[in-house]
Amino acid sequence: MKEVLYKFFKYLFFIYFMKCFYCEKDAIVRIPYSKLWLCKDHYIEYIQRRVLETIKRYKLIKKGQKILVGVSGGKDSTSLYHMLLNIKDKIDFELIGLHINLGIYDFSKKSLEVIKNFSKEYNTEFIILDSKEIIGAYLPETLIKLGAKILPNYKVKYIRPACSICGSLKRYILNIIANELNVDYIALGHHMDDLLPYIIKNFFLQDLHSISKLGPKTEKIDSLVGRIRPLYEISEEEIKLYAKLSGIPYLEDQCPFKYGSKRIETKIREFLDKMEKENPGFKISLARAIARNIKFYEKEEEIKLNKCKYCGMPTSKDICEFCRITKRAFGEPKGLYVKEKISEILKGIK
Ligand code: AMP
Ligand code: ZN
Ligand code: ZN
Fold first, then answer.
1. Which residue in 289, 163, 170 sits closest to 233, CA to CA?
2. Residue 48 and residue 42: Cα distance in Å, rounded?
3. Burial letters for 35-52: b for 16+ Cβ neighbours within 10 Å, e otherwise?
């Protein structure tokens, strides 16, 4: 108890007296691993600089490339979009923001509000797609058609978690749009605290092939567009603070379908956070070491991809995940239909 009080007062003392490393303003945050005290503006600049360094370190974006960012309205992907908007002229790339309205009750309505507010505030356009218009139903209806039961507290009773169905639909739609718009990469809002526990869990389970897809960059395979993760070396806490201090609109609510904790990942994350506290910089070193060896995991298991017999997209089975889900829900695989629909909508926007 004494020690906690001592630490608390020491922190208050520093916050009161410390100045920003780069200017005369009072510092409001300390970055333990780089031993820096920073004011609000320099913190925002510092995080943007680290993301720019990540992009350069892993050669994520080159001059003249086209990058599509899926923006959900949550703190991670909205911050990512804001960061890329601020650094895009330093590399000179084209940035396209995309939001998919999944129709998840109030949550999706609020997300859409955030996107519209962001658009207005920063004078930037997003492509907004409505999943009902594309697939024929919003996510809750799709889940019910699949045979799921949605309880009054939004708990979904189904053989698969709702997030996994939603993820499959989103990934397919994002990929179709990326192909239609001829983009070089899709940028995702996954950060270090999302990725490291998942990578380590896969290592424990010796699912090495999955690790190869969780690094800072996954290259294109056939018509599966490559993915980049510019937040690969940024922690969740740093993003939370970035979102707050930069004043961007974002939604704090969690999706109502997201419940229950991933127990193994949570335990690993607690361990990593403890290590980080005792050895500042530990998580970044680990992330860099994994990225250096990721090619090793790629070679472990080469999966030969087939083409989906309904839509022609690459898949490890004979029918892709999207066609399988939509066939079960609507009685017909919707891959090809969705491709045409998206192409039609995008022509209207251009
Ligand atoms: P998740 O599957 O929730 O981890 O989301 C993975 C990534 O997909 C996020 O980091 C976003 O970049 C993107 N994303 C999630 N939800 C949406 C959405 N509604 N519209 C567009 N992109 C999204
Ligand atoms: Zn400053
Ligand atoms: Zn298909």
1. 289
2. 10
3. ebbbbbebbbebbbebbb
* CA 39 / ligand 3 centre spacing (Å): 50
In this structure, which residues have their CB less than 5 angstroms from ion ligand 2?
A: 20, 22-23, 25, 39, 42
- Can you read off the two tokens belonging to residue 116? 């519209």
- Decide whether any atom of ligand 1 lies within 6 Å of the 72 Cβ: yes
Token match 């949605």: residue?
150
> What burial letters (b/e) apply to 164-181, b meaning 16+ CB within 10 Å?
ebbebbbbbbbbbbbbeb
Does the reported pTM lie above 0.90?
yes
Residue 139 Cα to ligand 3 midpoint, Å, equals 18
Is 102 near ligand 1, meaning CB less than 6 Å away? Answer: yes
Three-class DSSP category at 56: helix
Of 72-76, 96-100, 154-158, 190-194, give the lowest mean pLDDT range: 154-158
Whether the CB-CB separation of 143 and 150 falls below 8 Å is answered with yes
Test site for ligand 1: of 67, 126, 131, 170, most ligand atoms within 8 A of the Cβ:
170
Q: What is the pLDDT of residues 26-71, one digit of tens each?
A: 999 999 888 899 999 999 999 999 999 999 999 999 999 999 999 9
Contact 18, 36 (CB under 8 A): no
Domain positions in the chain: 39-349
Cβ contact 277:267 at 8 Å: no
* Choices 3.10.50.40, 3.30.930.10, 3.40.50.620, 3.90.380.10: CATH for 39-349: 3.40.50.620
Neighbouring C-beta atoms of residue 71, cutoff 10 Å: 27
pLDDT band at 233 (very low <50, low <70, confident <90, very high): very high
Residue 77 Cβ contacting ligand 1 at under 6 Å: yes
* Residue 52 in contact with ligand 1 by CB distance below 6 A: no
**Cα distance between residue 114 and residue 74, in whole Å:** 9
CA of residue 7 to ligand 2 center, whole Å: 24
- Is residue 187 within 6 Å of ligand 1 at its C-beta? no
